[in-house]
Amino acid sequence: MITIENGKVLYGEGMDAIKANVVIEDDKIIEITGGKVKGGKKIDAKGCIVAPAFINSHVHIGDSIACDVGDGKTIAEIVKPPNGLKHRILEESKPEEIINSMKRSMNDMLASGTSTFVDFREGGLEGICLLEEASEDIQIRKIVLGRDNSFFDPDVGKGEIKSITKNLLKSCDGIGLSGFGEIRDEVVALIAKICEKHGKISAIHTAEYEKLQEDSIKATGKSEVQRAVESDLNALIHVTAPVGDDLKLIGDSGSSVVSCPRSNGTLSVGIPPISDMLKHKINVLLGTDNIMFNSPNMLREMEYALKVTRGYYREYFSPAEIFKMATVNAANAFDLNTGCIKEESTADIIIVKEFSGNSILSLINRTEPKDIVGLITEGNIVYIN
Ligand SMILES: [Zn+2]
């Protein structure tokens, strides 16, 4: 048993700051109490915030090998499969170099308070094995969304797609597709259906920038969002450039959107309309996207997301909404019993120095990785500084 004592706890899905002690048994939070707790290990969190650890809902961890390469080039030149700059670098790199760079990124995530990440894993089964090997000794939860190159081959039949997908899903948590420009709609719909049937996650990059939407409408008469919603995918990545009724469609469909504002900024494609997404009752999550151009640091992502949203709308936007995007919204989307501190939740917790009376703003505005005193995942102490 572990008790985190004397801290200010961000409690429940509402993230209400309360003075309390958090009691952990095995992997679960079993009690949150104002009273003294006897026995077990004690962690003194005086002067600290006790908060849910972060869930980074979208990364491409394999690209850790190519940090800051290609700046100023177009998005297609950098990341479009199969001949983007990153694909060429990955091809030229040795597996151990890729593994070491992935390890570095996972340790960066732990150091900045992330307990869980959702990875778009390329390279089929081999790519999944590479991440398995890299994460062997690292106490981080990974949700692996695989893909196979055959998905993008116009000549591959439905039967083959079906068997490849089913086989891939034995080794991962779902499928992450690069985008509508590279894959037939019937293949997307088929993959989403197989994922659904097997209780797995389906996701795709959608409406990342305006030209993709224009091309989609020209080619099919539908926006990328319309196509994604029709295919019934669980998570749409980006939706930075919605058109027409796109946001209403997503809101009605129940799919989640993973917003990656720093990535959109880096690639000069816009600012995601987060406030409008929430108005349409969309479950919005936050991801740091490609490690080529972003550190996988959710503290940085939250701060950018909050401020760019206020700047974009020229009005107040609640920091608690941003904090939920980095925690409980993601847990709800991926069916994880975590993302908030309450009884019976999985104990994924950070203990962080408090710098102001406003706990959530203290986290978003002022906290650096060095200020994270401790990280607990699944009831295990990953570190206490
Ligand atoms: Zn991405």
Automatic annotation (TrEMBL):
Signal peptide residues on this chain, from the entry's feature table: none
Domain Amidohydrolase-related: 49-382
Gene3D superfamilies: Metal-dependent hydrolases, Urease, subunit C, domain 1
SUPFAM superfamilies xref list: Composite domain of metallo-dependent hydrolases, Metallo-dependent hydrolases
One protein family per Pfam: Amidohydro_1
Domain of life of the native organism: Archaea
InterPro entries: Amidohydro-rel, Metal-dep_hydrolase_composite, Metal_Hydrolase, MTA/SAH_deaminase
Molecular function per GO: hydrolase activity, acting on carbon-nitrogen (but not peptide) bonds
Stated name of the protein: Amidohydrolase-related domain-containing protein
Organism encoding this protein: Methanobacterium bryantii
